[in-house]
């Protein structure tokens, strides 16, 4: 007697699992509560999931369901053994970009009543190496490009399927190394590039795939196409991003590249050497007595290298952290010795800490301090208060107000040549970085990454606007340590460079009062 091996319902399930869009919807509704709303993809999600072109570009706004679509594409390929015996790859710039998709995958495979059968009990998911191995001989390998952008994380990799996510921040060097890793000779190979635009153009992976490379099929999605995007969401975003004409709104809600944005610092042009940089972070909410601050700062070692002179840059803040850079100069190059961060430390205590650090390192030759806003009283006290007069700060400390103008010299008509201080300070940092006067440390790539996130745009009037992006593309990234460096460079230029390069002028005539 011939028995039926598969029922009609089994065949229906088989056809549902084979379909990339139906599969995802089925899995997401499988264990749902009866009262829960049925999960249905938005039309653009169906288009993304069912796009089998060799090269696919997804340029979209935030909160459009990109993470869900990418997660379900990976799951569909894995459980259907589309590339049987091969591994597939999901790669992102940093770990913070990996977490959303990785957490979704782990949750689905560990809790979904169907997907959990694809894993050996207690095995299959390696959260330290970020890979998933299924019982059907399929595996997913997640690769983090890293901030260095050397491509080391993808060299030697060979796979028929790749997703490059958060491509607006993906290092260009790693992207170049990624090109030969795709097995284009395998049937059905595919590379998906996705992300939210940042405004960056040059050497930007997302802009390249969306606007330049004609091989990519294009998916451009704004938040307004999301059926779950409400009027309240729109009102909230208009307030949050500063109106519909702001670059943040254009990037995060409309999903457009917006006004051209350019990177200020290029890691490939920096001189990076291996030497120690000591880092201390102190929070005023955890420390009650100023002696405890002194105890922590005393732990900073002395500068062992022989130097020509020493410098300090300070960007003052309270809720926004204060950043202090201790640096030294040797043979025409500048090096970091320490970076100190103070959070929620009162300004009177900060004043004393700056003075303590100055004493600890034997008096800095050059000090640049942010004197804008709340920092002004601190600077005034250091320069004028009786308790500090013996320190001669007036000869070593330069107050830096980035909103002011700086006098560069005198023209032929005797008029002062002025420039806006902030663009000038950034140009100094660029010049010193590109000429290798600034020597960055391989032990402090966190600061190098902060510099790399600094961008600029030009207004219709030609004014330059600087902003530091967050890791996820927002315009309010932390730039306190960048500002501390700029303060030091302005002070260095004022006390050293400007003095060295100032032309000698002769006084043509003078007037004096005398008795007749």
UniProtKB/TrEMBL annotation:
InterPro entries documented for this protein: P-loop_NTPase
Name of the molecule in the record: Terminase large subunit gp17-like C-terminal domain-containing protein
